[in-house]
């Protein structure tokens, strides 16, 4: 399972011109699910996302996690993160989970995240428009 996390001042996601999720200060989490992923990997990744120290403390050092910084999460499914780009000029998605597995693990990730922090989400498999103001910019690729 892969999460591309971006520290944001604010972020939102629209489907068919309608805002379906938005946050202020926090993390935009683009989530990709691989065919070998399971609930345990989802929980490991969520723990990493929630505890990854990417927010500045009083001294300006990245020592605070999203919860300590009083932030929120916006979780958007993004199957392209699991693409194999090693060969040729067209990505392969053979490592991607089936839509059924990916949706279940995405839903589980979002539900469990809401138990810890304010969490908004996109719509699985929808054509989404994501808007954000990346703070820093600060972006990390997390893989479990």
Main traits of this protein?
2 helices, globular, 40% strand, 144 residues
What would you note in describing this structure?
It is a single chain. By secondary structure, the chain is α/β, with parallel strands linked by helices. Helices cover 20% and strands 40% of the residues. It is built from two helices and eight strands, in the order βββαβββαββ. It has helices at 39-51, 99-114; strands at residues 2-15, 18-23, 26-32, 55-56, 62-64, 72-77, 119-121, 128-143. Strands 1, 2, 3, 6, 7 and 8 form a six-stranded mixed sheet that branches. Strands 4-5 form a two-stranded antiparallel sheet. Strand 1 and strand 2 (18-23) form a beta hairpin. The longest helix is centred in the last third of the chain and has 16 residues, at 99-114.
Give the topology:
Blueprint: E1 2-15, E2 18-23, E3 26-32, H1 39-51, E4 55-56, E5 62-64, E6 72-77, H2 99-114, E7 119-121, E8 128-143
Parallel strand pairs: 3-6, 6-7
Antiparallel strand pairs: 1-2, 1-3, 1-8, 4-5
Helix pairs in contact: 1-2
Q: How would you summarize this macromolecular structure in one to three sentences?
A:
By secondary structure, the protein is α/β, with parallel strands linked by helices. 20% of the residues lie in helices and 40% in strands.
């Amino acid at each position: 399972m892969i999460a591309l996390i971006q520290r944001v001042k604010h972020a939102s996601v629209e489907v068919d011109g309608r805002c379906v999720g938005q946050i202020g200060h926090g993390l935009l989490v683009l989530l990709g699910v691989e065919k070998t992923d399971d609930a345990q990997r989802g929980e490991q990744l969520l723990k990493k996302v929630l505890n990854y120290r990417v927010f500045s403390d009083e001294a300006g050092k990245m020592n605070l996690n999203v919860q300590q910084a009083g932030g929120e999460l916006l979780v958007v499914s993004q199957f392209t993160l699991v693409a194999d780009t090693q060969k040729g000029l067209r990505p392969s998605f053979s490592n991607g989970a089936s839509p059924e597995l990916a949706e279940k693990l995405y839903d589980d990730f979002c539900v469990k995240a809401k138990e810890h922090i304010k969490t908004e989400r996109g719509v699985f498999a929808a054509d989404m428009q994501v808007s954000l103001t990346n703070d820093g910019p600060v972006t990390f690729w997390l893989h479990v």
